[in-house]
Amino acid sequence: MKPPRPNYDHGRPVQDVLPSGWLTAEEAKLLTRLAEGQLVLEIGSWLGRSTVAMARAAFHVVSVDHHRGSPEHGPQVRTLAGFLDNLEQFGVREGVSVCVMDASHLITFFKPSLFGLVFVDGGHDFGSVSRDLAAGFELMAPGGVIAVHDYRPSTTSRSGVVTSSWPQVVAAVDNFVARSVFAISERVVDIAVLRA
């Protein structure tokens, strides 16, 4: 399992006011700004770090996750109890609707053009990310935004080592952008913001 990233703000550690997780302070600030006054669809929530960040500013957050982790977490991961505890502990439970289901069912549960912000942070394989982006596009309100976590294109170090945190996430986002009217309008750490 990947350890949580340290929480930094402009190079200085900050006191954590969110549940533990992989979202940096800069990414949390971006999501809070994007969520301001919006009906938000979150695809993948883990223990609720991004959920809490968005719920503090959003009109309402609909969080969709099967709460069984991802293959990289191992077969016995269960996150629902910790997620619900964090919503209570951080005072946002009333502002979040929790949908425990696989994201592949999104289109059948929600009407199109509903959400002002869609945050994609579910599965990290090409197929899951592509499916979540397509669903996000259908469910996004006109003028809405899609934000995708774990988008870090490959970089090559001086020694020639090529790294990418989640290459299939990058490939799926790049493919979606190439085949749609969306463009990456902003990047903060590992979040890509897509706008039409």
Walk me through this protein's architecture.
By secondary structure, this protein is an alpha/beta fold. It has a single domain (15-195), classed as Rossmann fold (3-Layer(aba) Sandwich). It is 30% helix and 26% strand. It has 6 helices and 11 strands. The chain has helices at residues 25-35, 49-55, 80-89, 106-109, 126-139, 167-178, and strands at residues 8-9, 12-13, 39-43, 60-65, 96-100, 115-120, 140-149, 155-156, 162-163, 183-188, 191-195. It has a 7-stranded mixed beta sheet, sandwiched between helices. Strand 8 (155-156) and strand 9 form a beta hairpin. Helix 5 crosses helix 6 (167-178). It starts with 7 loop residues before the first strand and ends with a strand. 41% of the residues are buried. Mean pLDDT is 89; it is low at 1-15.
List the helices and strands and how they pair.
Elements: E1 8-9, E2 12-13, H1 25-35, E3 39-43, H2 49-55, E4 60-65, H3 80-89, E5 96-100, H4 106-109, E6 115-120, H5 126-139, E7 140-149, E8 155-156, E9 162-163, H6 167-178, E10 183-188, E11 191-195
Parallel strand pairs: 3-4, 3-6, 4-5, 6-7
Antiparallel strand pairs: 1-2, 7-11, 8-9, 10-11
Describe the structure in brief.
The longest helix has 14 residues, at 126-139. The chain contains six helices and eleven strands.
Count of helical stretches? 6
Radius of gyration: 16 Å
Strand order of the largest sheet: 5-4-3-6-7-11-10
Annotated CATH topology: Rossmann fold
- How much of the sequence lies in strands comes to 25-35%
Give a quick account of the main beta sheet: strands, pairing sense, barrel closure. 7 strands, mixed
Mean pLDDT: 89
Show unreliable segments. 1-15
Q: Please tell me the total number of domains.
A: 1
The percentage helix is: 25-40%
CATH superfamily: Vaccinia Virus protein VP39
H/E topology pattern: EEHEHEHEHEHEEEHEE
